[in-house]
Fold:
Amino acid sequence: MVDVDGERGTDYGCDRLPPPPGRCGIKFMRMVSTMLGRRVGAGMGVLALVLMIGLGGCNEDNTPKEYNTLTQQNFVELCTNYLYTSTGEITATETANASTLDSALEATKTTIKSDVQGTSQSDCLCMYSVYVNKMSIADFTTLNSDLKSDPEKAWNGVSSEIKDAVGKCASGSDDTATTTTTAVAPSTTTAG
Structure:
């Protein structure tokens, strides 16, 4: 006990002494650690929840669900080896208009890769029309993915009807691609 200016007190500012180390101190420490543990545990739970919600928004599925302006732009850019500018308008590709360039797109004079000779825009649009008219978008995106890993195996899996029509487009006789407009029913896929 400390006597300061005639008043009794402790170093802790009160008239009582702190509990002695031992049973009372252990109970106090357990109580503090339990309270902190619950708060830290709750805080970690909230942090985990916030991260799951926040990062869930980053898991965007970029797989197209239909043929549209963006799929046409990607196809024609890789086929011609020229970049295309876009107004940003994305509309679905109608099977009858698949062989014409979407009005939201415009060719530039910038090549993607300088040492690659691309195909003409009209031949590329003819090929795109073949895919739009004869292959579901799900099969088209699967083919695109498979071509990156094993091109020969992926191309061997394409029907001879599509291969023949694409070959005719590449040779410049594009009349066969637009005469047959039998669309394949889209297959159902689930996003993973």
User: Anything to note?
Assistant: The chain has two domains: 7-56, 69-179. The longest strand covers residues 105-111.
